[in-house]
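Before the break, one more example. Copy the sequence into your notebook; we will annotate it together after we see the structure.
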Amino acid sequence: MNRPISKSFKRVKPRISSSERPGSGFIISPVADLFFIIGAPLVTLIIGSLLFSLPTSSFTVAIHERNVDLRQVFVAVFVNAHLFLVFFRSHANPAIFRMYPFRFIAVPLGMVVLGAMSPAVLGIMGLVGIWWDVYHSSLQTFGFGRIYDSKQKNDATAGRELDYLMNLLVYLGPVLAGAHFVDHLKIGVPHLDFLAMQESSLNDLLTNRTPAYLEQHQEYLAAAILAISVPFVMYYFYAYYQLMQQGYLVSWQKVWLMVITSSVSIYCWGFHSFIDAFWVMNVFHALQYFAIVAFAEGRNLTQLFHLCRFRFGGTLAILWAISFSLLYGLWSWAFASGDWFVSMALTTSIMHYWYDGFIWSVKKKQV
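Here is what the structure looks like once it is written out:
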């Protein structure tokens, strides 16, 4: 889901013939889209609210002499599994892998080695992973919205920059202005431990003074985000009204995707605990990713696992890919400790953010 580069107000191409009339407007199917793409944020919020309203004791089990909450285990495994799933689109797709062997082999191997050997590199990788995650999530929703626009036979460039900025606002706005921005900041502080060895003023600035200052003045940041958001949202609707006058057809699928996603984002980051917000926002993003990969990569996965001759080979191939990804998710939760394993896990995360948008761009050129 790559960054837009075209003008938002480029004139919409007129309808040429009845053969170009929009179809159903859905990406996969009405039911699949409603549950796994458009409604995924709401579905996840409802399930999460129900699960986390139950007593913790109902989900607490002893594993390796440690009490763990199975709900948190599920979140960690499921979210990390979707990160690994991208390798079935890159390394397991011969047509794409042969085109860019350097970035698919040398880059991740180099990152793993550098991260394991250097505390500074490992710390930087951790910080990059935290904030690239938010940006990447916004681009996934942006990508779905643009696909829904294309289903209406709209000009591919119409409103592209508007949607890009709106999706950044939907994700980053509630994080920066919400009640848990400082919590989000603090999870990055441990990745700066390598600075502590230097006893430098930079260490004190990044790990102590900056979080403390933002915590004391966070309401000013929230006010600034609100001051930017309200005029932009008004401009967003006005700009799309102008596009409609030029022939742009509104996709109600895209509208509901944006309404539901923005509402859940504001509600979670603004009014829920940090853990609950993290749970919902990451799980629905992973759910959407599993759905779109299963839909878009079905043929490649079937060929990869040599299941083309079987009646339900496509379904079985998707289940195998998901199972392997879940096994990775379980490994990352249970065993990813120590510099080498942590470096491998962080590399997987960063490669997912990079490869996902990159592969969408490559496939677009291949079509």
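Confidence is low (pLDDT under 50) at residues 4-9, 14-19. The first strand starts at residue 60 and ends at 63. Try to locate both features in your own notes.
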